Amino acid sequence: MKDNLVRILIALLLVAAGAWLVSATEWADTETRTPARGEAATNGFYATQRLLRELGGTVVKRPGLDQMPTAQARLVLASRHWDLFPDRAARLREWVEQGGHLVIPGHFVDQDALKDWLPINSRTMKVDPKAAPVPRPAPGAPVKDADCRTLAEADSSPASHAGARSLRVCGYNGSSEFLSRDKKQAPLWSMQGPRGTEMLRMPMGKGSVTVLGGWSALQNFNLLRADNPLLVAAALQARSGAEFWFVVEESRESFLPWLWHNGQAAILLGALALAFALWRAGVRFGPLIAAAGTQRRSMAEQVRGTAEFLHMHGGDALHAAQVRALDESASRHLRRHAQGDAGQRTAAIAQATGLDARALSQAMALGKRGPGALAADLELLETARRRLDAYAIPHASTSP
Description:
By secondary structure, this protein is of the alpha/beta class. The chain has 13 helices and eleven strands. It folds into two domains: 40-131 and 142-247, Rossmann fold (3-Layer(aba) Sandwich), CATH 3.40.50; 300-391, no CATH class. The strands form two sheets. The chain has a nine-stranded mixed β-sheet. Strands 4-7 form a two-stranded antiparallel ribbon. It is elongated. It starts with a helix and ends in a 9-residue tail after the last helix. Residues 40-232 form the DUF4350 domain.
């Protein structure tokens, strides 16, 4: 019995909690924007371009205005840096005058590159106190429609569509209205709102210039709202077979990829030349070829060679060759050896080799010698030369 009472009490508590939750809360449906996917995630004009293709047009997307569209094409120019190069404004004007149709947002009208030749001026919208107030959304109207308004085509221009001239347009609109620079020239097309002309197309040469104050109507998130598709089709003069160029941003490759794509041959040749220069200037770990071993002649070959030299040239020639060999060794190992006189050179050699300077001077002197004296002088000179090469004193002083 007690268990049944506990169960009934718990059930009553749950029912009371549910009734309170229902009375204290309100359930309502909310709309959330689905994140864009694919090309629509990176292309803000994807919906407009898709609409133009469905209407039979051809869409061309360009990364910059380095090339002008074909004749009679529609150019949707939204890049902020389209006038990066000074000749583009002149080329754009010439293209419009020859039959091109230019479509630009309203804030482009005041650009220095355009305002001198566009047939359209802009001015800030002024609120007329006598004019009817701008209709506000009803209290129960969804917030998403708060930026919607009604625009009407001017009666002086042909109707863009078979239906009514008024269109309900949604999206942000700037604070400027647009007027013809030449008041005597009638516009080809215009859309007027409660505060003035928001969109205007004027003829220019054989072509035309269209300025859109409500530029956001072309964006993906606004195109399918209210009558925006009809407005975009009229603003871009959508026709079957027409060509539409979209220049939305001035995109270029970064410097290093651009340099590689345009100068591969020069870069490769420069890299090879640099590698070769570094290889030539680099420190080697060893000689390119093995050094040849020092070979000594046998005593018999030395005796025969000396005898042949004496037989052919005489003792004086052998003595002069020995003195020349000693002088060459001294020039390699003694500093400023060649700048001193004969006495200073002899004294420097004697100091470097430890030999007697007087005996060395007599041995180096020219003149006739007997066989015994010649042999002794040659031996002394050869001893001095070998000592210089063995000790290799590179910077010995030449002072006696």
